[in-house]
Amino acid sequence: MTAVGNICGTTTDRRAVISLLRRLRSEEGHVNPLPVWEELRALGDVVRAPWGGYFVTGFEACSQVLRGRNWLVPDFAWQERQPDPERWQAPATREMTRTLIRLNAPTHTCQRRALGNPFDRTTLESMRPGIAALAATLLDDLAERLRTGGEADFVPTVSEQLPVRTVGEWLGIPAGDFAHILDFTHRQVYAQELLPTKSQLDVSAQATLEMRAYFTELIRKRRAHPGNDVLTRWIHYWDAQYPDDRSTADQVVYDLTMFITIASLETTAVLLTNAVWLLTQDPSRAAWLRAHPQHIDDAVEETLRYDPPVWLNSRVAADDTVLAGTPVAKDTTVHVLYGAAAHDPRRNPDPHLFDMLRGGGHLTFGGGAHYCLGAALARLEARELLAQVLERFPTLRPTAPPAYDTSRVVFRRITSLKVTT
Ligand code: HEM
């Protein structure tokens, strides 16, 4: 039984929830989801989803689900019990279900332990100069486009490039492959949507085939030509775990490499774009931060809180339980809404204010056993990029709000942010 103080239970107003979800999917909802978060939270900390299961809107209840041992990720065993084989048996869904984010203990514990902390302080310090140099090169490109065209798109020029080049270099992936990786990543994520359509699953299935072919070949080549890199170390480690079973070792290395790569790209790109958008849409914010660069980390943290790159994550009740006063039966799905949680005024007073000094709380990198393994790397990329943007482009400003892929509400994608100086 779960005890949550001072938070309220569920509503059954189905039409209200459907209408809010429609708004969230609209252009308006993507540009400004805050009214939707507020209205959803007003319906309760735990809100019944129209198709069964619940949305979790309050900060404490979300935190409790992410950290609680009685909440599991929806793994193969759960998926096989579901009545919707088209969704759960789809190849793109199954590909993701073998990865860390869909594994429960003990397999999850074993893989996390093997990975350790891939971005510990020493590793990050060794990566910092390279990330700063990459950011400088991308901003040179931005400067040139601004000089020649007067306007440039920050997303394809900078935000999407820094994460793929950073993680690509870390894994020893050839630079010529980055565009291909970005391309299949953008299409593969549809299978992880809340309610993917048949055509989204088809797009995702094709991208999954390309992704599998790419990473399988990458690992094959690395076996043939080992280097002093992370991927080679993973191959050695998993070969030692399965000395008589090369195909299982290959499968684990594939799952890790593929997942860490795609988990790091769109998420970090949205953070970088959001940081620039939120700081430059109000020039006084950028001016203040330029005068107080010691608060760049705080600006990154407030960006993560204000508009999380991932909006939703799902868990399943391991047993009959009670969440925020709402009984939840074993096997029921609950969807944690990171944005609604971050704008819960009980956790962050005046939540709709972008306040770089608030020192607020957020769950943008998740929590508990599945806490994001790349959080420190994403923060470092954002910090290095922002420092240079502030210094080199004192008059940078958006010419329009960002454009979004509005067909997504789980892994968000900002497709464009036009800027000028
Ligand atoms: C702003 C950027 C990022 C955001 C917002 C983000 C968000 C998340 C979230 C919400 C989770 C799930 C946590 C849960 O289920 O409780 C997660 C897991 C994960 N993330 Fe990130 N992520 C980001 C960047 C990265 C980067 C750069 C990497 C790797 C280089 C990465 C690797 C992972 C991995 C491996 C997991 C799975 C952990 C597990 O299930 O044990 N992420 N991330």
Automatic annotation (TrEMBL):
Keyword annotations: Heme, Iron, Metal-binding, Monooxygenase, Oxidoreductase
Full protein name: Cytochrome P450
Annotated GO MF terms: cholest-4-en-3-one 26-monooxygenase activity; heme binding; iron ion binding; steroid hydroxylase activity
Keyword Oxidoreductase tagged: yes
Keyword rRNA-binding: no
Signal peptide: none
InterPro entries in UniProt: Cyt_P450, Cyt_P450_B, Cyt_P450_CS, Cyt_P450_sf
PANTHER family assigned to the protein according to its UniProt record, in alphabetical order: BIOTIN BIOSYNTHESIS CYTOCHROME P450 (PTHR46696:SF4), P450, PUTATIVE (EUROFUNG)-RELATED (PTHR46696)
Family: Belongs to the cytochrome P450 family.
Biological process per Gene Ontology, one example term: cholesterol catabolic process
